[in-house]
Amino acid sequence: MKILVINSGSSSLKYQILEMENEECLVKGLVERIGEQESDIEQESEGK
Predict the structure, then answer these.
(1) What is the pLDDT of residues 1-48, one digit of tens each?
(2) Domain ranges of the chain
(3) DSSP for 16-44, written as a single string
(4) Which family does it belong to (predicted)?
(5) Contact present, 29 and 41 (Cβ < 8 Å)
(6) CA–CA separation, 31 vs 15, rounded Å?
(7) pLDDT at position 46, please?
(8) For labelling, which of 29, 36, 40, 45 has a CA lying 20 to 30 Å from the CA of 10?
(9) Between the CA atoms of 38, 42, 34 and 39, what dihedral angle is there, to the nearest 10 degrees?
């Protein structure tokens, strides 16, 4: 089973997709400065 975890703040959002069977993080990311002209998106994923 896969779980999507979201943590949102006033101007940022963090997320992860976890594979619960083996407790592995498949994808994680961060969106910063939401709503501003120079926002930033970072994402990391397992190489599959």
Answers:
(1) 999 999 999 999 999 999 999 989 999 999 999 999 999 999 999 865
(2) 2-45
(3) EEEETTTTEEEEEEEEESTTSTT-EEEEE
(4) Belongs to the acetokinase family.
(5) yes
(6) 9
(7) 81
(8) 45
(9) 0
